[in-house]
Amino acid sequence: MTVLLTNLPPELIIRILEDLPSRDIGRLSRTCSQLRSICRTDIVWQKLCQQICDIAVEEWNTTYYNIFTKVLHRYGRCLGLWRRNMRPYGGLMQVKVCIRLKSSCLCMILYIQVDNGRLLATEYKPPYVSDIHGPLRPKKVFSIGINKFKNRTEILCLHGYGEAHPGSIEFETEESDVEFKCCQMSSHAHPKGSSVELSTMIKKETNNHTIPFTIDDQKRLECYMKNVPKYRLTRIEVQRPDPVYPIQPGLFLAHYRAHGIEMFLLKYDMNKKETEVIKITGDPNVPAGETSIYINLRKPMQLTKDQQLDVNSLLLLEEEDIPDSDDVQPRNQPFVIPPGFSTFLDDFTPSTCEYRYFARGRIAGDDYRDPNLISVHVVPFEAHGVFFVLWFKFWDMDGFYKITDINI
Ligand SMILES: [Zn+2]
C-alpha cells in the first residue's frame, strides 16, 4: 500500500522533517502548497538553528525560519575563533551569537540594542604591555543579522566614526577561509582629519601615554590602519583538555621582548607527543601564523640545580643528546632561573617543577629572513596556567600565560 506524504497528519510530517537537512526541506517545500506551509513551521527551523548554535529566538525578534535561511545557513560557519591573516602582525578574532546582557544602565541598553540578535565579530588585542594579566582589548569589527525593514540579510562594518555601514563576506578565498570587506570606506574618515585620527589611536594604544610608544608600535599601528577595510581570517581550533597533557592546549600570552605582548595557540599533534606554539599575533621577525616553539614531549629532562645554572653547557646540548622517552610521569626537580637572565615574570617564582622538556624556538631576521630553530627548554606549571621558555642563547626567559577572559 502506498501512503502519500501529504496524507499523513501534519505533526508526523513535521517529525519527519526534523530529521532532514535544510536542503531537502527546501526541495520538499517546492513540491506543493500544503508541504510548503508545513515546511515553514518554525519548530522545524528551530532544530536546524540549534544544530549550529544556541539561539534564543526572542533576542532576534523574528522567526527561526528567518534566522536560519537568512543568517545561519550561509554565515553560521563564521562562528568561532579566527586568526587574522595580516602579515606580519596577525590578530585574534571571535565570532559569536550576541546575546542581551542584563543591565539597568541606560547607555548599556542602547549599546546592546545594536548588536542584539546578530552574529558579532570581535577582534581582541593583547593587554597593554605594562600588564600581561590585564584584560584583552576587544573591538567590534562586523556583525551579521537581518534588516527588519527589508527582511533580508544585513552585514555591517562596525569600524569608523559614524553609523554602522555595509560590509560583505566571502568564503574560501585564495588566502583565507573567510574574508570580510568594508563596502563604504568613506564612513571611516575621522571627522577631524587623519592626523587627529593617528594621535587618537596612539593615545589609545599607549593607554593615554602611560606606556612609551616604540617604532615597533608605530609600524603595527600603520599596518592596522592600512588593513582596516579587509579582514582575511583562518580558523583556529582549540583542542579539548586531556589529563595526559603536561600543558593543556589553548591560547596564551607572552611578553616577546621589544615586540611587546603577543598571542599564541598551543596545540598537540595526533599522537599527543609533539606540541606547537603558533603565533596568533606576530612581529616583523617571526610573523603571525608561524610556529614559535616546537616542544617534543618525548624529550623530558631532569636537571640538578647546578646543571641548570651552567648555561654554557646547556647551550651545547642538542636534541639527540636527550634520550627518547614515552614516560609521561612527572619528574620532580629543582627549578632555577640562571642569574643574569632577563624575564618579564610576576610574583610567581617557583623553586621546583614537575616537568621540563627540550624544545626548539624560532628565530629570524627582519621580514622573516633566514628563519632558524635554536635549543630552548620548556617548563610547564599547569596548575598556575603558565609555562616558561628558557632561551639560553639570549639569556632570556619568557612566561606564557593562559588566556582566560575569552569564552571558547
Ligand atoms: Zn567600514
Report the end-to-end length measured between terminal Cα atoms: 52 Å
Order of helices and strands: HHHHHHEEHEEEEEHHEEEEEHHEEEEEEE
Please report the total strand number as a whole number: 19
Quaternary state of this entry equals single chain
How would you characterize the overall build of this protein?
The chain is α+β, with helices and mostly antiparallel strands. It has three domains: 1-40, Monooxygenase (Up-down Bundle), CATH 1.20.1280; 77-192, no CATH class; 242-402, no CATH class. The protein is 23% helix and 29% strand. The chain contains eleven helices and 19 strands. The strands form three sheets. It has an eight-stranded antiparallel β-barrel with strand order 1-2-3-4-5-6-7-8. An eight-stranded antiparallel beta barrel has the order 9-10-11-12-16-17-18-19. Strand 10 (261-268) and strand 11 (274-279) form a beta hairpin. Helix 2 (22-29) packs antiparallel against helix 3 (33-39) and helix 4 runs parallel beside helix 6 (64-75). Bound molecules: zinc ion. Zinc ion (ZN) binds at residues 157, 159-160, 165, 182, 184, 187-188.
